[in-house]
Amino acid sequence: MKSNLEIADSHQVFRHSNLISALQSVTRRGHTYALICLLSVTCFSLSTEAARGAPRPRSNSDSPSQFDLRWGAGLNLAQWHYEEPGLMKEYGSLVGISAFVGARIAESSQKWRVEFDYLVGEITYDGQFSDGTPVVSGARDKHWTLKGLYGWIYMADSFQWTPYFGIAARNVNDVIEGVGGYERNTTQAYLPLGLEFERTIIQDWNARIQAELDFLITGTVESHLSQASPTRIDVTNRQSDGVGLRLSATLSRSLESFDLWIQPYYQYWDIEDSELVPTEVPNSFALEPANTSHLTGIILGATF
Q1: Model confidence pLDDT, tens digit, residues 246-275
Q2: CA 143/CA 162 separation, integer angstroms
Q3: Residue 175: which residues within 8 A CB-CB, separation 6 or more?
Q4: What's the gap between Cα 124 and its chain centre?
Q5: Can you tell me the distance from the alpha carbon of 207 to that of 55, in angstroms, rounded to the nearest whole number?
Q6: What number of other Cβ atoms are within 10 A of residue 2's Cβ?
Q7: b/e burial code for range 210-219 (CB count within 10 A of at least 16 → b)
């Protein structure tokens, strides 16, 4: 987000001063790390399958159909916190839905899954005007995420584990209300790379733990600054450097015709400064500052 309600400082380059050191190294080499990790997981999966043979896929049906197709949906409740260190922050509650469709390919260790999340909410903006005057205002947010994932299932003595990769997109639409407020729209494409562990605790009760690294491919931030002042022009900044982390734990109960489940989760993003773009003022530029975001939530759902 821009650093204030009227317009971001058009020539100062803001730097993120509190990066997590482990993620900082990955962020600077995000694309290279993503390709290396993807290639490593693929090679490891193929070599393990060749050595051990394709494991028997987990299925809820003895049907000889080609796909064990399942779908599910749930209520998503979350807390959102976004910050540009030293400049501004936004925080508040979001509510929405999560849905997925996926399949395990019969007589194979492979599976695919498509996920979609949508959240909306009224949140708080705590920042400043372009002259540095502090301001607290309301804001309206809409978030969506779409993922396509592909993985390989491996069976161990008491659990199964699945390395996976995919392609994903996320969007955050933020409308800052009040004097000087404006709309900004962020769309990002990224590569998810993760690992999932699942086991049966007792009869009809399953537990699943999932850890995922997300590598930013590209992003655009459209800031409608003309809504804050007719003398301003709208700007679009491009992002190319960032990394994310998603952690979740799912507990499910198998019933006769469907499963009930609950999933607490945490999503973190660390995005670096965008490129500079010219503004309406000669020899000045607009920047989308480096930022971090935290999304902590819980999903209550059913699978069919």
Answers
A1: 999 999 999 999 999 999 999 999 999 999
A2: 28
A3: 139, 140, 141, 181, 182, 183
A4: 21
A5: 20
A6: 27
A7: bebbbbbbeb
Cα–Cα distance for residue pair 81/62, rounded to 1 Å: 45
Look at the alpha carbons of 124, 127, 130, 134 in this order and tell me if their dihedral is positive or negative: positive
- Of the candidates 3, 14, 10, the one whose C-alpha atom is nearest the C-alpha of residue 284 is 10
Reference 215, options 195, 240, 236; nearest CA is 240
pLDDT tens digits for range 93-151: 999 999 999 999 877 889 999 999 999 999 999 999 878 899 999 999 999 999 999 99
Identity of the amino acid at 55 = P
Q: Which residue matches tokens 């049907």?
A: 63
- The class that CATH gives domain 21-51+77-303 is mainly beta
What DSSP string describes 202-256? ETTEEEEEEEEEEEEEEEEEEE-GGGT-TTS--EEEEE--EEEEEEEEEEEEE-S
DSSP-derived pairing of the beta strands 205-223 and 291-303: unpaired
> How do the domains of the chain map onto residue ranges?
21-51+77-303
Q: Which residue is listed with tokens 């059913």? A: 302
The conformational region for residue 35 under phi > 0 = left, psi -120 to 50 = alpha, else beta, is alpha
CA distance 246 to 159: 21
User: Global pTM?
Assistant: 0.81
- Per residue in 188-217, pLDDT tens? 999 999 999 999 999 999 999 999 999 999
